[in-house]
Amino acid sequence: MASLEFTRRYAMAHRLLTTKSPKCAIPHGHNEFVTVRLDPTEPFRFGGANSAAPFEHVKRRWHQWIDEHVDHALHLDENDPLIGYFRTREPERLSQIITFQGDPTTEALAACFWLKLTAFVAVEGLAFTVREVRIEETPTNTVVINRQNFDPSDCGLRAGVWPRRSDMSINDFRD
């Protein structure tokens, strides 16, 4: 079976409050790479197009979301007091904040990416399933989630939140 794999680079900032790391409690940034691997739902067979779908069709929505919504976003716990600051002083920037249930770790981001990509694949009617999400946070730190270590149906994330939706959202703020 031939998998599709594609990578995107983006910049981000976050802070981790629950982790109790003094360095990570201060907002700081990373230039990260996300690599996703998709498996076709049908085995490869010669004849016709010889592919489940063109690369550009499969990755179009994903790359648009990364480039226009994830790149240069601030990642915060949905209960972080900084959100209150932005609500009162810079509400126009709320659309650039990605929120998480708990600390916005790279592990949490990988799980959210998995869920969002799954929603995109479903709404586009693509004949693929997500096999793996890999985020390189730094040249020496990478997080990988796959079917063996991540169960989207039992990950503790509330129903209907932004990662589970096929829209371009990165948070659940209401206007």
From TrEMBL:
One of its GO terms (molecular function) is 6-carboxytetrahydropterin synthase activity. It catalyses: 7,8-dihydroneopterin 3'-triphosphate + H2O = 6-carboxy-5,6,7,8-tetrahydropterin + triphosphate + acetaldehyde + 2 H(+). It comes from the Bacteria. Its EC number is 4.1.2.50. Pathway: Purine metabolism; 7-cyano-7-deazaguanine biosynthesis. Belongs to the PTPS family. QueD subfamily. This is 6-carboxy-5,6,7,8-tetrahydropterin synthase. It comes from Terricaulis silvestris. The lineage of its organism: Bacteria, Pseudomonadati, Pseudomonadota, Alphaproteobacteria, Caulobacterales.
